[in-house]
Give the backbone structure.
Amino acid sequence: MSIASEAIEALHEAADAYNNKIAEINSRMEEAEADYQSKLASLTTLKYAHRDTEVRSYGNADWGDGLTTDWWSMRGGVSIELTLSILFRNDSSSWGGAYTEVLYDIGDGWISIGHSGFDGPMINGASAIPTYTRCMLIPALSEDNYDVRFLLRHKSYDGTLQVNASRNFSGEHFGSLLQVIC
């Protein structure tokens, strides 16, 4: 092998090593960009809250509508953390309590997530003024960005259920609350 051939072969090996190094650097840059975009997306957390102070009474025959939110913009592909805090009043001295159903609408009509059963504010033998609080994680409702609204519906166990009633609170910051974080 001549000196020229050896030099050309050495140049090819150096070029291959250089190209491999550039490919490795590009791969690391792509990983760093993806990590940066992920961290950036986590900084844009969306938070919404709807406070409701309207007094409502519910029977035990049918579900009745309660708090309804405005339309809120959500990021696609991201789960929603939903927190409820509902001010109940049950003026019965027998078994009494409440069922709460959570529904959402993304433009196709109301869809139920499910209901609480009579968990939480169920009381026997005393009138009660409990606050029902629940937090739930709802899987992403769409892979694309979307708008959503929520509705709470209630039903009484014994026909004596009221929401936001006779609690002697004042001001718009006291009342039932539905809050979401996305």
Q: What stands out?
A: The mean pLDDT is 84.
